């Protein structure tokens, strides 16, 4: 006699594995944001995800691999938030892109990366992994911004050089917030800096 499977049929093994990995990465990202690298443990990640230690070790046998994968996962979550922002080369839309970049570089993702970079100074294995992931994350964010800011026909001939300078400037001001400078002073500095960048990227096209 054949047995008909209902709608509660268990998902395929590959699908369950992918879901377990996603749960671990979500939990690892949140663990990193909440406690920093100093308090980050694979046991804590497994507990937060509601997954057995065996399943956690199957997907991520080493702490360093889990940490760097969590940073990459955070970057992908950040990019999903950014994708809704577009630019047509106008002043207002370019301002939105610059503001979004500033919030990214002053936000939890790069706070976690700064924390990891400091922790990795005395750990060669972690340092190499963090540096690779930092380059990857920065490239992802930069490529997003470059696509948004070159969506018009009258981009300056030296746009790539201006863009590189703008990114470095945004990061520099954002670090002030990560270092604990007052919200008010950082915001004043950012508004002034953003206006200067807008003049270079948009206003001098007319």
TrEMBL record:
Q: Which InterPro entries match?
A: Homeodomain-like_sf, HTH-type_TetR-like_transc_reg, HTH_TetR
State the superkingdom: Bacteria
Question: What are the alphabetically sorted keywords of the record?
Answer: DNA-binding
The HTH tetR-type domain sits at: 18-78
Does the UniProt entry include the keyword DNA-binding? yes
Q: Which positions does the record tag as DNA-binding?
A: 41-60
Q: Does the keyword Cytoplasm apply?
A: no
Q: Which Pfam families match?
A: TetR_N
In its UniProt entry, what is this protein called? TetR/AcrR family transcriptional regulator
| Natural source organism | Prauserella endophytica
Its ancestry begins with: Bacteria, Bacillati, Actinomycetota, Actinomycetes, Pseudonocardiales
């Amino acid at each position: 006699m054949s047995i008909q499977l209902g709608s509660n049929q268990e998902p395929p093994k590959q699908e369950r594995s992918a879901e377990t990995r996603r749960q671990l990465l979500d939990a690892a990202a949140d663990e990193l944001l909440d406690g920093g690298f100093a308090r980050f443990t694979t046991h804590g990640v497994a507990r937060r995800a509601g997954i057995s230690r065996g399943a956690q070790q199957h997907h991520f046998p080493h702490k360093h691999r889990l940490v760097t994968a969590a940073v990459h996962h955070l970057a992908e979550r950040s990019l999903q938030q950014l994708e809704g922002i577009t630019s047509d080369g106008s002043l207002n839309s370019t301002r939105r892109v610059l503001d979004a970049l500033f919030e990214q570089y002053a936000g939890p993702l790069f706070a976690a990366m700064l924390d990891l970079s400091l922790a990795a100074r005395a750990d060669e294995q972690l340092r190499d992994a963090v540096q690779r992931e930092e380059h990857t994350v920065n490239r992802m964010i930069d490529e997003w911004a470059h696509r948004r800011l070159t969506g018009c026909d009258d981009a300056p001939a030296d746009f790539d050089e201006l863009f590189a300078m703008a990114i470095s400037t945004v990061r520099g001001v954002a670090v002030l917030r990560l270092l604990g400078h007052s919200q008010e002073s950082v915001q004043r500095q950012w508004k002034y800096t953003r206006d200067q960048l807008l003049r270079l990227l948009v206003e001098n096209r007319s």
